[in-house]
Give the backbone structure.
Amino acid sequence: MRTQVVIIGAGPAGLLLGQMLHRQGIEAVILEQRSPDYVLGRIRAGVLEHGSRVALNEAGAGQRMEAEGQEHHGVELSFEGSRHRFDFNALVGRSVMVYGQTEVTRDLMAARAAWGGRSVYEAEDVTPLDFDGARPRVTYRHGGVTHEIGCDIIAGCDGFHGVSRRSVPEAAISLFERVYPFGWLGVLVDKPPVAPELIYVSHPRGFALCSMRSATRSRYYVQCEASEDVANWSDERFWDELRLRLDPDTAAGLETGPSIEKSIAPLRSFVAEPMRFGRLFLAGDAAHIVPPTGAKGLNLAVSDVTYLSAALGEFFRERSSAGIDDYSRRALARVWKAERFSWWMTTMMHRFPEATGFERRLQRAEFEHLAGSRAAAQVLAENYTGLAM
Ligand code: APR
Ligand code: PHB
């Protein structure tokens, strides 16, 4: 079999790339190791930057997001009981769309199925080969049969644990990483959100976040030990801890109920450079990871594939390699800005085990500067709603 692009991974990056390529008449086959239900079962953040909202609409997969998503015009930071709202419209004239990543993935899967895009789910041992030459190929096993697809381009959209990055010779890739000494214990509950907008909380007991999926489904997090076992956290213990970290008014308004999902996520910053190796291109979590504090993971996947899709359009339509030759530089420039913002928000809002009084006072000074300076608040709002693509 032969195609123009093989996309490894049917998460947001792979599916959106497939949609963007299709709209340019470029043929792509998606190979995904898991089943559709497994992919849809992942609980992930869903704060879409302005640019991501535009990209999904332009890709023809934004209708339900516009109908069911919640447009947010601000966010609150709470620091040791002091709350401050950042008004996105007043600060930068933009908003964000709150719409779960699961729903984004569902909409992209539906859009691909609607025009009959070829996707192979439960593809085993997907292996990118010969991408250092002009005739790359990908092998995989499905239903006990080994297949090979010849192609011009391989897009590694297979996430942090995928095969694509691992297929690159160690000497050809540089890895940059920071692992944080804590995790996020998250709970999904079918109760109305405690507030109309997200509240990021910094408290001496640790960070907390009040988020939502809809008007009837909420998502809450508390910072926990990196080594914590979710089995140690009953719903009751979680709600008690969350209340302790919220200001009294918010805590009083918290509606609790049985968790429908409960899990612990580690926090890390990670970047692989470059993001291009011959005819293999990395996009999304395959190339970088951000701590969830800045809600940048999904949005970076969108900007990566926006750049890659444009570059591949030039490559196939104009036989020009200018775009693909510049892809890594262009993508990494935006990745590192989002890495910086995510690291900065994480550093400001979390309780670090080794922190002294000096670091804690720096955190408070950071918050007070944000609350008291329009210029500082604009920097937060500009990054949170999304830097230009
Ligand atoms: N072969 C085929 N598919 C694979 C392989 C493999 N060897 N390894 C991983 N995959 C699939 C995974 O099953 C997953 O469906 O690749 C997909 C990668 O999707 P994501 O991990 O969601 O990554 P990405 O599409 O880049 O989206 C980034 O997802 O993890 C969140 O916070 C992150 O919001 C961000 C978004
Ligand atoms: C979420 O709703 O899961 C969420 C929102 C914002 C974040 C992280 C997670 O920064």
About this structure: The mean pLDDT is 97. Residues 45-47, 198, 211, 219, 292-293, 295 surround P-hydroxybenzoic acid (ligand 2) (CB under 6 Å). Residues 5-47+58-68+100-177+268-346 form a domain with the FAD/NAD(P)-binding domain fold (CATH 3.50.50.60).
